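thread: overnight batch results

M.L. [08:02]
morning all. the overnight job finished for the chain we discussed friday. pasting input first so we're all looking at the same thing
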Amino acid sequence: MAGTTAGALRAADENRRRYDNDFYVRIGSAGGRIGRTGGFFGRPDLARAAGAIGGLMSRRSRSLSDSQRQRIRHDKKFRQAYKHLLEVQRKAKLERDKLRETRR
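M.L. [08:03]
and the structure it wrote out:
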């Protein structure tokens, strides 16, 4: 494992020399094929809904105290964002189930 930029470049060159020039293309492709978690790539609506909740609950906010952050959990915006996220997830599950049924 490289500890510096120069070391990383040497390691990348060595990998390409040993395993062919498309080494990183092949390992990236393999990782994409075996992934089963889904992710946000194909679901921008789900990413937006989850990001909204994360933004509301972020601990990095400098302007909120802990007690104010706790109150956000019960805030109307948070409830709306959470409700929207659940609705998006429900629709995604229905779409997946429908797709599975058509494959049978």
